Amino acid sequence: MDVERSVLVGAYSTGAGDVGFTVAALPAGVSVDAALSVAARLDALSRALWRCYTHPAAAAGDDMTDDSEGWRRQSEREEFDRVLEAVEKPNLPDAGGGIIVEYSVVAESAHRLGRAVHAIGDQAFAAAVRAQAAAELAAVEQAELGDLSGRAVQAVMLSRTSASPVQVAAADALLREELLGGAQLFTAVDPTSAAVAAAHWLHAAATVAAAASGYEVTQVVVAADDIEEVPVATPSMVLAMMQAGASPHDAVTALIGEAVDIAEGKIPNLPGLLDALTEATENAEQQGDDDEELLRTLLSEIRTTPLDTSRPAPDLLEDLLTGIYACMLLYREYESELDDEETIQAFDLAEVDDVVGAVLAEEDSAAAAGDENEDEDEDENGEEPDWPELASPRFLAAVRAQAAATADRLV
């Protein structure tokens, strides 16, 4: 609420900053408490609507029978058609003071907003608030279709438990153009879908680095950590899942789904947690029966999820991109031992020959046109260049070829 201008205001995040807007001008004589009540109920309705986006029925993983989690989510989503009617004509107290309370969180949130607006009793104000509810509803529906333009862009800050094929394709295109995706990966694509594409490209980068270094695909990030400190747990976990046969989508949504459940107070992988506790106890016992300090240390290192539960999808995306960077670090350590023909033979991919050749030719041309006296490890200001400038064209080309060869895993 903007007290100075006497208007109700709103805002949403774009990933690059917040966008503010005017919801409605406050009628004369409206109390601060009444205005804040409307604002609070607009927030509650927005949360209920966006929860249907982050928790779609398709991601519940059950058979949609009555009273199942999938059935409950689908029931909530079906209440979208009643939202605007409930805001306009809410359930009001009867003569005896009783009131109908909806079972659905979405429906009841809409009725509570309608009652708060009704209490103010101004038609123009009511129409403006209803228009904002309609805009928020449309933004959620638009995001569900994979279109994050306009108000739907706020989805880039949320952790959805499933991925949009449209958004995965958009993220894949960004990563193909620039291996770390650039700023648009965080401001124009929902983070779960971006993480799915990033997992695909991480696996491609790890395959290239493994072929060059001799390490296993699942060990390349661990090996790179000896060169420069990088997050190890999450990228290695995703690589292990994919090496075991999981698709990028399944690996990413499984990790995000677990983190979302944990944030809501659930324990999605109790057997795994018990195994970790047992292993920590056995390791401590092997060191000595009385080593309680070691046991406490080992237990303190156990995590229910490697992700930040307050923002699991963006956190996973960041770790996967750093994992790609780690693959580049390891590849660079062994690159001098390779030649172009060995690179091509290592992958046996038809596309590599053309792609690597074209990129290396472009690099040679650029080098010939540049200052021959300039140190190739420094930029024009004498500073060491940032990623992706540090990645060699051979590495980038090989990763792109590997990603193209396994593109069917993204479908």
TrEMBL record:
Composition-biased stretches (Acidic residues): 364-387
Protein name, per record: Uncharacterized protein
Domain of life: Bacteria
Stretch list, region Disordered: 364-392
